[in-house]
């Protein structure tokens, strides 16, 4: 079943939708873009205000729907991530919108700028933005990019994950209560709906999900030459320096890894620890986990795995690692006789797989759950070589008080972003672009001005000044002035660079 608002404030009537219906909705929004023309600041502010009011008015229904879809997930965590944070993003964008919309001055060329020539970038709305979300944050991951898409003056079609039908339905009802379908609409359905959505001729398509599905989305967008931003994932490594504070590092990593039960694209996957500190660090991790979630899987704030398929997948990873000879350690029990899993709630204790052999699935697959791999290392140079051999991750985390060590790791590795002495925090900085590299993503956005720019066209504008005679040297017929300005200049440069041999002269 797909939900599309049929008319403003019509009650979000549900009806089945096919590719033709999606095309009609796209044409509706594109016609509105053409009719509207320039999108004034007050219009954008009104849309942001209505989106804020929408979230506040529908927050309980949205939370109920998320709990229905997700099951064992703390309601307070859902309130924080799926309601509070989007509301904060909307209000921040509303406050900064005026400065974001200002033209950006650039330097005009000489000698024209001496006569008053000006160069600038004006940020222009792209048009209609398609946003495809992921199941691990079903509301947040469509609303966060929506904020800056609306701030940039666009209209948008939102496609929540097909794994979260109740959340998608609740969001569709909320949007329909505050927006005309020509401004903002929610498309919800199954796999075929998602495929048809990604094949629409948007002015920009934003996708959050796995690399495998991201490749399919990119292939569907390619015939339309639709530009895409792909926020994917990968195995985010942690490098613990020999001087790192073990207690502090363990506390921060446990907090990061257990967010949403480890079901986050930025969750730490691989922990590289100096060999001599390995056992001590595992002990600290166990203690910090026990302190943060007393009772382990019996703690109601501890997030369960989203569905049975993923629950079984994680169990299989742990079983395989043990069979291959790796040490598999449940964390957070603190010596108590506590269960390590709750099948009814799909809660699995955080497990560490210690130094699995090459070929283990835990070394190759993105874990996306309460499992992490810990690998001892002896030499940072060899470690950096190993990091470069891996697929480029979305995030990389370094724990050390020595700036030279930190920079050595950064210079010797690749990643979409970095957090030093914590994990995942670079994602939360509005002024930093967030995105992957290689298989972890393409393009970047943010909750701040980088997101505004992602969903804008940077339009170059040049205002000429000065007499037309200034261009005479570059126009035919070419003569003495051309020789002085071009030929003699090239001859002078050639003499300067002739000492640099080419390969055939070396």
UniProtKB/TrEMBL annotation:
Coiled coil: none
Family label: Belongs to the aldehyde dehydrogenase family.
Protein name as it appears in the record: Aldehyde dehydrogenase
UniProt entry keywords in alphabetical sequence: NAD, Oxidoreductase
Entries under InterPro entries matching the protein: Ald_DH/histidinol_DH (IPR016161), Ald_DH_C (IPR016163), Ald_DH_N (IPR016162), Aldehyde_DH_dom (IPR015590), Aldehyde_DH_NAD(P) (IPR012394)
GO CC list: cytoplasm
NAD is among the record's keywords: yes
GO MF: aldehyde dehydrogenase (NAD+) activity
One annotated GO biological process: aldehyde metabolic process
The keyword Transmembrane belongs to this UniProt entry's keyword annotation: no
Lineage summary: Bacteria, Pseudomonadati, Pseudomonadota, Gammaproteobacteria, Nevskiales
Domain Aldehyde dehydrogenase, residue spans: 16-461
Active site, per annotation: 231, 265
UniProt-listed Pfam families: Aldedh
Natural source organism: Solimonas terrae
PANTHER family (UniProt xref): ALDEHYDE DEHYDROGENASE, ALDEHYDE DEHYDROGENASE ALDX-RELATED
């Amino acid at each position: 079943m797909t939900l599309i608002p049929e008319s403003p404030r019509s009650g979000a009537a549900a009806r089945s939708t096919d590719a033709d219906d999606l095309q009609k909705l796209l044409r509706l929004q594109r016609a509105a873009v053409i009719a509207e023309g320039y999108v004034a600041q007050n219009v954008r502010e009104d849309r942001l205000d209505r989106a804020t009011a929408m979230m506040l008015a529908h927050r309980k229904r949205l939370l109920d729907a998320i709990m229905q879809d997700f099951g064992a997930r703390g309601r307070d965590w859902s309130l924080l991530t799926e309601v509070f944070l989007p509301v904060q993003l909307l209000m921040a964008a509303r406050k900064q919108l005026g400065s974001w919309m200002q033209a950006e001055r650039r330097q005009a060329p000489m000698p024209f700028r001496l006569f008053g020539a000006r160069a600038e970038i004006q940020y222009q709305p792209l048009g209609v933005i398609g946003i495809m979300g992921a199941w691990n944050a079903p509301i947040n991951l469509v609303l966060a990019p929506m904020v800056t898409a609306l701030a940039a003056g666009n209209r948008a079609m939102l496609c929540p994950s097909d794994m979260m039908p109740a959340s998608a339905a609740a969001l569709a009802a909320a949007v329909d209560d505050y927006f005309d379908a020509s401004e903002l609409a929610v498309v919800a359905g199954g796999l075929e709906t998602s495929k048809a959505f990604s094949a629409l001729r948007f002015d920009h398509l934003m996708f959050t999900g796995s690399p495998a599905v991201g490749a399919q989305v990119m292939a569907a967008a390619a015939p339309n030459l639709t530009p895409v931003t792909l926020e994917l994932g990968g195995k985010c490594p942690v490098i613990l320096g020999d001087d790192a504070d073990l207690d502090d590092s363990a506390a921060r990593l446990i907090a990061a890894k257990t967010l949403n039960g480890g079901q986050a694209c930025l969750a730490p996957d691989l922990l590289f620890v100096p060999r001599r500190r390995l056992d001590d660090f595992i002990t600290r991790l166990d203690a910090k986990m026990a302190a943060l979630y007393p009772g382990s899987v019996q703690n109601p704030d501890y997030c369960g795995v989203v569905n049975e398929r993923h629950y079984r997948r994680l169990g299989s990873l742990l079983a395989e690692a043990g069979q291959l000879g790796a040490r598999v350690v449940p964390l957070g029990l603190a010596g108590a006789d506590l269960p390590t899993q709750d099948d009814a709630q799909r809660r699995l204790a955080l497990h560490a797989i210690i130094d699995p052999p090459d070929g283990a699935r835990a070394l190759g697959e993105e874990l996306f759950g309460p499992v992490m791999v810990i690998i001892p290392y002896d030499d940072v140079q060899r470690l950096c070589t190993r990091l470069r051999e891996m697929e480029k991750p979305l995030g990389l985390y370094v724990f050390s008080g020595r700036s030279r060590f930190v920079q050595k790791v950064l210079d010797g590795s690749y990643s979409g972003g970095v957090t030093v002495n914590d994990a995942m925090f670079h994602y939360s900085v509005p002024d930093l672009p967030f995105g992957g590299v290689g298989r972890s993503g393409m393009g970047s956005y943010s909750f701040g001005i980088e997101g505004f720019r992602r969903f804008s066209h940077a339009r170059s504008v040049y205002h000429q000044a000065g007499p037309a005679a200034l261009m005479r040297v570059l126009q035919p017929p070419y003569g003495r002035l051309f020789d002085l300005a071009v030929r003699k200049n090239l001859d002078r440069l050639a003499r300067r660079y002739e000492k640099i041999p080419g390969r055939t002269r070396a």
